[in-house]
Amino acid sequence: MIEDKDPQKTDLEKLGEFGLIDHLTKNFSITQKSTVKGIGDDAAVLNFERQQTILSTDLLVEGVHFDLSYMPLKHLGYKAVIVNLSDVYAMNARPTQITVSLAVSNRFPLEALEELYAGIQQACKIYNVDLIGGDTTSSKTGMLLSITAIGEAVEKDIVYRKGTKPNDLLVVSGDLGGAYMGLQVLEREKEVFKVNPNNQPDLEPYSYIVERQLKPEARKDIVELLEKLEVHPTAMIDISDGLSSEILHLCKNSQIGCNLFEDKIPLDPTVISACEEFKIDSTLVALSGGEDYELLFTIDQDDYDKIKGNPNLSVIGHMTDANEGTNLITRSDTKIPLTAQGWSSFRSSD
Ligand code: ADP
Ligand code: MG
User: Fold this and answer.
1) Short-list 290, 293, 312, CA closest to 82
2) Which CATH class is domain 169-337?
3) Ligand 1 center to residue 93 CA distance, Å?
4) DSSP state, 133?
5) Closest Cα to residue 48, out of 128, 148, 153, 147?
6) Are strands 52-61 and 94-104 parallel, antiparallel or unpaired?
7) What is the Cα–Cα distance from 313 to 217, expressed in whole angstroms?
8) Domains 12-157 and 169-337 fall in the same CATH topology
C-alpha cells in the first residue's frame, strides 16, 4: 500500500554498527536537566535528585504487534515511543528519557531505519524526552523494537492502579474504540490490495480512526490538566487493552467493584458510523478494542465539581463494594458482569 516511487536503498553493512548508531542518532538533542550523559558511553547517567524514578518497557515484534504492510515505519517509531510514554503518564508522572533497542534483518535498508528514527525523533520532540541509549543487533526474521521510557515524579503525586474506594467516580479521557476501528479499516484495505494492487484506497472518510491506530498520542495534556485542576486521582491506568480489562485491573488491585454505564461511554461519531458499516457493536469495541491510550482513573466524589463539564473527560461510572461485582449497566438498565473480553452477548451481533 505504501508505494515508494524512487526508493534509495543503502545496505546496512556499509555503515557497520557504530556508523549506523551515529547516523541514526546524530540529530537528537538532549533537553532534560536530569540527563547527565546520553548516548556514547557504556551506559547513560541520570540524576533525578529528590524525585522518584518511573520506568516502563515495551517489546514490539513484527507480525505480532505491528504489520509493516500498512504501518509506515515513521508511524511505527512514533507509536512505539507513545505507548511507553502513556505508561509513564498513567503513573501521573512526567517522562524524561527513552532508550531504543532494535533488531533488524538486512531486508531493511538504511533509509527504512531513518524513517523509523524520524518517527522516534518526532515523538521525542513533541513530548520533550531525551533519547539516551539503546542497543542494535541483527535479526534473522522480522523487526524487533523495544523501547524503555524513564520518567520522574514527586513521591506524593504518583498514582497507582491501587487506591480507589467505593463511591469514587470512574473517569475516562477522550473517546474510545477509534484505534480498533481504524485497524479494521486498514485490515480491509490490505485484503483489497492483495486482490488488486492498483486499487488506491480512499481512507479520507476514516482519517480520524486510522490516525487513532497509526498515530496515537499519549495524554500528557490530561496529566497537566489534573494538576491544574488540583485533582489527584485515587487510581489510574492507561487504556491499552480495552476499557473492560483496564476497569477490571483497577477493581482487582483495590479489591472493589464497579458500575459502568453504557450510555456514558464516549464514542466519536466516526467510530459509531464505522461500527455500523462493519456491523460491530460500538460498546463492544470500546470495551474490548484497545490501543486507545486514553487515561482511565478514579476520583473522590468531592472532586467532581472540578472536572464537571470538561470536554476531555467523561464520568462513566462509579466504584462499589467488592461484593457488588464489576458490572455494565446497559442502556436498557440491565446489569451485566464485565469480562476481560467485553460483553460476551455482543460477540455474535450481526
Ligand atoms: P555496547 O557495546 O556497550 O552495548 P553499543 O556500541 O551497543 O555499546 O552502543 C554505543 C552507544 O550507542 C551507547 O550509548 C548505546 O546506548 C547507544 N545505542 C546503541 N544502539 C542504539 C540505538 N538503536 N538507538 C539509540 N542508541 C543506541
Ligand atoms: Mg550494545
Assistant:
1) 293
2) alpha beta
3) 26
4) E
5) 153
6) unpaired
7) 16
8) no
Contact 189, 278 (CB under 8 A): no
Q: Classify domain 12-157 at the CATH topology level.
A: 60s Ribosomal Protein L30; Chain: A; (3.30.1330)
Nearest listed ligand to the Cα of residue 130: 1
Distance from the alpha carbon of residue 25 to the mean position of ligand 1, in angstroms:
10
Cell digits for 84? 511507553
Q: How do residues 52-86 score in pLDDT, each as one tens digit?
A: 999 999 999 999 999 999 899 999 999 999 999 99
- Grid cell, residue 101, equals 533497542
Could you give the CA distance from residue 186 to residue 6 in angstroms, rounded to a whole number? Answer: 24
- For the chain, the structural domain boundaries read 12-157, 169-337
The answer to whether 327 and 248 are in contact (CB under 8 A) is: no
> 24-33 as b/e, with b when 16 or more CB fall inside 10 Å?
bbeebeeebe
Residue among 21, 116, 124, 138 to mutate when testing ligand 1 (max atoms within 8 A of CB): 21
pLDDT at 2: 52
Q: Would you give per-residue pLDDT tens digits along the chain (350 residues)?
A: 555 566 788 988 888 888 899 999 999 999 999 999 999 999 999 999 999 999 999 999 999 999 999 899 999 999 999 999 999 999 999 999 999 999 999 899 999 999 999 999 999 999 999 999 999 999 998 999 999 999 999 999 999 999 999 999 999 999 999 999 999 999 999 888 888 888 777 888 899 999 999 999 999 999 999 999 999 999 999 999 999 999 999 999 999 999 999 999 999 999 999 999 999 999 999 999 999 999 999 999 999 999 999 999 999 999 999 999 999 999 999 999 998 765 444 444 33
Q: Whose CA is nearest to atom 1 of ligand 1?
A: 42
> Rounded to two decimals, what is the model's pTM?
0.93
Nearest CA residue ID for atom 5, ligand 1? 135
Residues near 90 by beta carbon (within 8 Å), at least 6 away in sequence? 159, 236, 237, 238, 295
